[in-house]
Design goal:
Layout: E1 2-5, H1 8-19, E2 27-31, H2 38-48, E3 63-68, E4 71-77, H3 84-89, H4 92-95, E5 101-105, E6 119-125, E7 132-138
Parallel strand pairs: 2-5, 2-6, 4-5
Antiparallel strand pairs: 1-7, 3-4, 6-7
The structure holds adenosine-5'-triphosphate and magnesium ion (MG).
Adenosine-5'-triphosphate binds at residues 5-8, 10-11, 32, 34-40, 57, 77, 105, 130, 132.
Length: 140
Amino acid sequence: MRLTTHSPEETEQAGADFARTLRPGDVVTLDGELGAGKTAFARGVLRGLGYEGRVTSPTFAIANEYDAPGGMVAHFDLYRILDEEALFELGFEEYLDGERILLIEWSENAGALLPEAHRTVQITYGAADDTRILEIGETA
Ligand SMILES: Nc1ncnc2c1ncn2[C@@H]1O[C@H](COP(=O)(O)OP(=O)(O)OP(=O)(O)O)[C@@H](O)[C@H]1O
Ligand SMILES: [Mg+2]
């Protein structure tokens, strides 16, 4: 599925809509350049799951955890995780408990620790400053 948004709010709404399709244990990769809107989309997912608190970028914390009405969520930003060994050290595999929903920015840094079956959200810049193209899919 492909859609275009014209503001951060629209990207958040797309995340909230997407959240309704999520099941416990789903792993979602959020891909796109710096500032594409990965965290904005994740914020929308949390809203869609009924979480009303602040949703910030986990860049420095690596992972932020949420106990949302719609389920437990772990939001990762692996920008600073340089290899899968470092991620393993963080206990990443314990998050893959079949219950938590995982939202992962810079998932390429997870290497082989990333489950093969996952949902994918690819965000690219559009022609105008605030335009973003969202491609939502899943691995085979
Ligand atoms: N249509 C849009 N959707 C999402 N964000 C938008 C849009 N238009 C403009 N923006 C702006 O783009 C930025 C997106 O920031 P965000 O932190 O969500 O990106 P990110 O992909 O998570 O970046 P990073 O790689 O640094 O984690 C915000 O400053 C937001 O205001
Ligand atoms: Mg981000």
